[in-house]
Amino acid sequence: MIVGIDFGTSNSACSVRLDSGDIRPVILQPDSLSPYLLPSYWYFPEGSMVPVVGQKAKEMFVESGHEGRFILSLKSHLSNTELKVVTINGKAISLEMIVSFILKRIRISVEEQFGKITSVYAGRPVVLSEDRSIDQKIEDRLREAYRLAGYQDPIFVLEPVAAAYAYKQHLKKAETVFICDFGGGTLDYCLAMLEPRDSCKKDVILGTKGVRIGGDDVTGSLMRLFWNFFGYSSQVRDFTREKWLPFPTSVFSMLSNWKNIWRLQGTARKIKGHIHWGSSDPDALKRLMALIEPENYFEFLSELERVKILLSSQKEANFSFQNKPIEIERVITRLEFESVTANLMKQAEAEIFEVFKGAHTALKDVKTVFLTGGSSQIPAFQKIIEKNFGKEGIQKGEIFTSVANGLSAYQLS
Questions:
Q1: Lower CB count within 10 Å: N or C terminus of the chain?
Q2: Which helix (H) or strand (E) holds 295?
């Protein structure tokens, strides 16, 4: 039995191809409203080196009063080849070992539902690093995580190529298709000439491109709407208390990404020092001090994530966070959302042109665009696709499971 695993920045999914050729999704969270998705969350309770994973990890972290260690978006950390281990409950543990707990949970689910695994096709982004040698090292880290989880020799496949093969399963005639896989951590493209399953002709991958922006970056961009509330435009005195200087803004760059939830703790002492020496807005800096507390930061970004999802289907959404000294109740409009994410969308569009330039193909030659990944639902991104390809040819697959389905179908090609 062949297994396709899409270990994602935000969610993970898995499909199997049975001996009959049928492709089936694997249930990863039986009691969930999304049983085929496993959120890429880890929670290490105090004193434990074995984490709870998935949605239950988030629930237990909140129920514990934010005690213990909660980890998310770990896939994006693998690109930092200098970061080999983290300390949890006083002990060092490798990132590969942490990843393996999710992969092991998936393996056990597959074996319980379908039996023995014979081959594994594992998804990976087009670009893990612009440096090819580092890119290979990151892939090797993923391979080690699979090994630690009990898999033998996973075969890595580019995620947008896998999504192309998911789309291929329903083809009645040959098509040139542009695939957009916009997930939590990366945006990947694939331009392919695909043949129906019963064709003797081979599929041709004309080009792939990847840009390291994803849903996490989109969520983080919404944080910009609140920067001034936390002292971005304030001034602070230097240690002599004679000169006023702009408040150092590097902390605000860190605020915009989930993965910095623990790094932010190192800035608390500096912020406290600025309050001591003198600030033009000490209340804002006190709010900033409160925000970088892990429980507040986690809940604040969770609320931004909720608002982001709502703004993909409605014109405005209410943001609410009430935990003194941070008290915010305000409406965020889609216009504001699109304003703070405009630069990300420009990057997304520029990379489309690079794919077609490299493939020596005109945009007008493509009649079908296949969208997958949760962030592909963002209206500003869909506007880019409609502007360049028209609305008629847009096809939407299983948003969160197309890559896993395509991975399990991959050997059929």
A1: C
A2: helix 294-311
